[in-house]
Amino acid sequence: MLQDHIKRICLWSGPRNISTALMYSFAQRADTKVYDEPLYGYYLKNSSARVYHPGAKDILNSMENDGDKVVEMMLSEKSSPVLFFKNMTHHLLGLDRSFLQGLINVILTRDPQEMLPSFAKVIDRPTMDDVGYKLHVELIDQLQKLGLPVIVLDSKSILLDPEKQLTKLCQKIGIPFDKKMLSWSPGSRQEDGIWAKYWYHNIHNSNGFKKYKPKEEPFPDSLKPLLDSCKPYYQQLSKLSL
């Protein structure tokens, strides 16, 4: 770990997992600076996702595409006592994972029964590489091999009791819980990536964590093969969640 006493929290999320709500939550803290998916440009440059992700060209043109430079930024940034980097697990691609030792790694997951239909509304015909469940389990294995703590959050648990789950998360991180983390003003934030217009409509209309509501729509038949593949990984993640 780095020796400057700064808490560098890296959230490794799958898509549609209230990761942006968590970023907004941490942004309410006076001691915290947040960063929205700094590895997104690197991911798009080095994967076929640039063909089908909305706004890919603008994203590539507006942010750092060199993954090593992004990692160096995350490890060297000292602007606040607590730094919160929201990232997607699939954005890691071929990066040397040893840099994880300089971060407090938090994995955010969600029941694929609820996540997949939401994601498919923006990305047509998603794959296992797009949704992150297998990558999450692989990341946990890497963290354990490096002797690093594994912190796993489940989106549903947070929505059912935000204060309880955020208090437990803050304890794991080693920072005091702040009630300001439970609410925010509706609208966008200056830290939002330029992809916000495609993905952040719900969070911009919120003022806090929305109450959990189970999905009522029938699950799409076209996504059932992917759901069956995701379930075993999600079950492993659930066993480790706070």
What's the structural blueprint in terms of helices and strands?
Layout: E1 7-13, H1 19-27, E2 32-36, H2 40-45, H3 56-62, H4 67-76, E3 82-88, E4 104-109, H5 112-120, H6 128-131, H7 133-145, E5 151-154, H8 155-160, H9 162-173, H10 196-199, H11 201-204, H12 224-240
Parallel strand pairs: 1-3, 1-4, 2-3, 4-5
Helix pairs in contact: 7-12
Structure description:
- This protein has 242 residues and is of the alpha/beta class.
- It has one domain (7-240): Rossmann fold, CATH 3.40.50.300.
- Helices cover 42% and strands 12% of the residues.
- It is built from 12 helices and 5 strands.
- Strands 2-3-1-4-5 form a 5-stranded parallel sheet, with helices on both faces.
- Helix 7 packs parallel to helix 12 (224-240).
- It is globular.
- The mean pLDDT is 94.
